Model the fold of this input.
Amino acid sequence: MMNSSTSLPEEGASGGAKPGSYYSYGIPYLPIDGYPGRIIAIEGTDGVGRSTQIRLLREWLEVQGYGVVETGWTRSELMQPTIDLAKSSNTLNKLTFVLLYATDFADRLEKEIIPALKAGFIVLSDRYIYTAMARAGVRGIDRQWVRNLYGFAIAPHLVFYLKIDDRTLIRRVLQARGMDYWESGMDLKLGDDIYESFRAYQRALLREYASMADEFRFRTLDARRKVDVLQDELRRQIGAFLADSDTSAAGTKPE
Amino acid sequence: MEGIDGSGKTTQLTLLSKWLSAAGHPVFVTEWNSSALVKAATKAGKKKNALTPMTFSLLHATDFADRLLYNVIPPLKAGMIVLADRYTYTAFARDAARGVDRRWVRELYSFAVKPDLAVYFRVPIDVSTDRLLARRVKLKFYEAGMDMGWSHSLVESFRLFQGKVLDEYDRLVDEFGLSVVNAVGSITEQQRTFRRLVSQHLEIETNDEQLDELA
Done:
């Protein structure tokens, strides 16, 4: 049943899309062509310091006069209570899990991201659809089906993948907050030992991200480096991108 | 069983279910948009009028996935007959009427089990509206397509929106080979046609006398 979509045409989210346009069929009633904003996605597993980097980037961008909007994963007003309920009662199966996250993303896309792009903001996205794709991939959901599902998403202008190895990842997560049921992939029944399950799950996630890096043109950065070193690298690359796009499409940056 | 509100498909489903049960076929009924998980979100979204065509579509797909895994596949495995009061075609028709991409919705539901028989109860918009109003059914916000903002009048909006849904159903008849029942005829007449269609897929005796008693 899960693999039935192999016969479908090669559609959906793929690296072929132009940054700032829909990956595939998109949302027909919301045309976005020519919107002046930009989407910068920061991807990576837990414990790579995404939120710290985003906070620093926001500061830096705002000082330069760019309007910034932040968006995250599982933060929409519509879905937060439902996802919380589902997680706490363990009634989520893998398919509904994937669909609930897609609903949440659609809500944020229409209500936060697209209006911000229209108004010329830089959208800093703490995780993007790749997290959902990685989680679905680990759970054995057909890859092409998930890509079709996210065909309504907008291809970001830049995707940074903050990468760490599994040993560092495990230590950082344990230090920060310990393990929880879902982040340990306990629903996958990889074993009763929560540590072993966590390790197997996080390793599988890292493999999923790695498999998407080329396809979606991730800019991969080593997240084991110091916060300020990583921040400098992000600023250098974003600065170069914005300088390019400001000369090609004047009017994004205030004079 | 497919059809717009007021097509009488739920009545037909109930009668069919009785017939199948009486003939010794175990039946399991599942209704559109009924899983506990999604009900909360749909309700919250309706109250605040917060659902967009995309989130409406995805929520229903979530509900469908939940019911497929709990209410459709297990009874099928147990050899029961699953009667679905609306199936994927409802999503194809409604979501497209709301402006969601047709190809995307079809791919979204590609995880669904293909039904052995899909019956579409076709009814003109005037007949369905009259039936609903005669029963003093309060037209529901999303069923009337009020979220589209096409009309301030509930009845007018219902007619406009369900009219588009009917157009979409007509496409689906050819695309997916739905069996059409003329839902304007009498209840018994429709049920007779319905039972004849179903009996082509089952080893069951069509007993018109039984039906006449029912009517």
